[in-house]
Queue: 2 jobs
Job 1
Amino acid sequence: MHHFRFLGLHDRLQLVQVFAVVGAGNEAAGVDRRELEMVLGRVRADHVERLGGESQRVDEVRRRGTTGACDEDAPHLRSGGMARRALVTGVGGQDGSYLAELLLGHGYEVFGTALSSPEGLPDAVQLVDDAPAAIREFKPDETYHLASASFVPASWEDPVGTARFAAESAAALLDMLRREHPGGRFLNAASAEMFGIPRETPQTEETPIAPITPYGAGKAFAHFLAGAFRRRYGLHASSAILFNHESPRRSPQFVTRKVSRGAAAISLGLEQELPLGDLSAERDWGFAGDYVRAMWLIAQAGEPDDYVVATAKAHSVEELVAAAFEHVGLDWREYVRYDRSLSRGGAEAPALLGDPTKIRQRLGWQPEVGFEQLVALLVEADLEELRAQMASAR
């Protein structure tokens, strides 16, 4: 990969420190690409066709008047046949890696920030050390702000760092766009954690924001800031309010990967039990590949706006566990042990269920991977990885 270094940016030292924290907690899980392709099946088989369909979807939305322009006339696209440029913060994480692949498939030139050289990231992605400087230097058509210390419980261990990241990273990017590249588009990856204990179910773009964790509060700050810059300076700044989305690239400390890896390990005789917290907690789980497709569609819209990205179907942790163990032919009740220390207690956000009506009606987005298929995808990826480890240890 290509690396670009920028010097003399003393006023951005805090931001660099924040990106380092983000990179440490948001790296890809390291699943071998060939193994993942076998598991994805249909999703991988129709990848090229879906990319073409997404472009047609954008054109259709524009013809209906939502965006009011075709590709060759849109001000954020480059003239003369030049490839569009995109900057992705946190490109080494789950969402960043899927988004980079999507953008490259659309012919973009992709730049990104990451703590190190992430495994499995396409060579075409050009790593940069400072995102605001990259905006000034390369003038990306679209900036996707995905970098985040996204493991919610860890935000209690470092609330100051969490707050610093939320404030400085979003503000630095938006301010650089305002000053140096006001025609660029900005997509902020917000989170359903902003809703805290929601006053209504399902949650929409109008649901009151009342976070109950430092992580949720930080996400709310960046979300509000994007809206503020949109209103004050006319920036094309939007937020994708993302509900839980998973993949084999998700870090193992997340409950979805913990469950899928636990079920796989127990089925192979590598472990005997799986300790978990509250099994009644419900989440609206989707596939990360579907959600980055939603982010891209939001960035293509003629007018900036905020969109809930969700499946509209809630599942409990118990359902997740049951599906994972069923996939390997085991009864989860024989292996799962309750561990009180793994519960969030009063900070647990119940009944997070999103209503994606707005993005479905305006941009034509809908998820392609269902809950059962997602769980099977996770378990199969962990089975393949563990089997490979067993074989190499012999």
Job 2
Amino acid sequence: MKDLQIIICNTIFLFNFLFSCINSIEVELWGECYNIEETLILDLSNTELSGEIPQQIGNLNNLTELNLRLNQLSGEIPLELGDLVNLTYLDLRSNELIGEIPNEIGNLVNLEYLYLYNNQLTGEIPNEIGNLNNLNHLFLYSNELSGQIPYQIGNLVNLTSINLYNNEFSGEIPTSIGNLNNLLFLDFGNNNLEGEIPNQIGNLVNLVELNLKSNNLNYLIPNSIGNLENLSYLNLRNNQLVGTIPIDIYNLQSLTYLSLRNNQIEGVISDQIGNLINLEYLYLYDNNLSGEIPNEIGSLVNLVHLYLYNNSFNGMLTDNIGNLVNLTSLDISNNNFSGYISNNICDQGDSTPKLEYNNFCPPYPLCLTTENIGEQSLSDCFICEEGYVVDCNLNNECCLENWLGDGFCDDGNLPLNCNLICYQQEILDCQECSIDFIGDLNYDLIVNIEDVIILLNCALGDSNCSSCYDIDGNEDINILDIIVLINIILN
């Protein structure tokens, strides 16, 4: 029996000797052994790791890349990570890490990429972050980080991308941000930052995207923002910015996206807005802007969205709105626009524009529905007495309402000189008869039973008629025209 116990013990010892990591040569991490000297890259991303990051990971002092993203790692970032002084790439994103970013992170002076986003990290960014002057990407977004953005962030002069979006940072944006003149992308959105946007932001002349949305910034937009000639995306929405839109902003000819919505900006849109020829998305709604929309807005032919609602714009809507043929969404509701809407609005791209709650006067362009027009204040409009409608020449003249759809084309050329062609009921009266398809009364390039029904309704007096319905040309519309039309279809 004693011999058996000795055999079992020796077997266990031999098993542990053969299958355990070699002290001072190897490190065991998550059940695997890694050679301390030879392990340069450790990529265990998306491998369902759980639990805490072992402190022993700090022994892999030759490691240059550590990738543990997309796991279920929990607990705090171990201080021992600061021993990996040769790291150039550290990726702990999309785990369940808690606690603060350790000060020891500042030891990683060779680090170029630091990804800690999509965790539950708290506390402040340590000042030691400023030691990482080789850092290229700093992504800390979607955590619960708080406090001020450290001034030392300005030491990271090689940064091209910094993203602190969706945290709880407070205080002012440090002026040292202006040192980062290699930045291409800056996102401080969805935080509690306050005060002014520093003038030094204008030093970031290589910047392509700037997002400061959803903070408590409460001063003027700095003129220096006009220096960012490479900027294509500018989002300052959901703040408390005041003053006017700086004239320098219209220098940003590379802009494709501009959002200043939901601030307290006042004043007018400058006619220099026509310089922004690459703009595709313009959001200025929920401000205190006023004045007329400049004609030059018609130069923005690449616009897809134009949202100006909930302001105090006034005057007539520029005819040049019709140039915006690529629009898919136009909303100018809840302003003080007045006068007549030009037929040019039918040329812009949005078939369902929102125009309600203004002071637009009838008659309205035929392309607009009652839903598009919505409720309008007509107190300043020229209104005809009952039985009359406004002349489409918009010269404050009135025409008899019963002339609409009476079979005569009232286009201003008849002796009585009334123009009614802006009314739906007058369309049939003024349509030219089809030469190639005689009897094509609904203009669908086919002569069939549908045209017979239209003609029958006309002959019975149930609908408006047009001279085009006089198929036999005897200047009278009756059963004979129906017979001729049926013969055309049969033949």
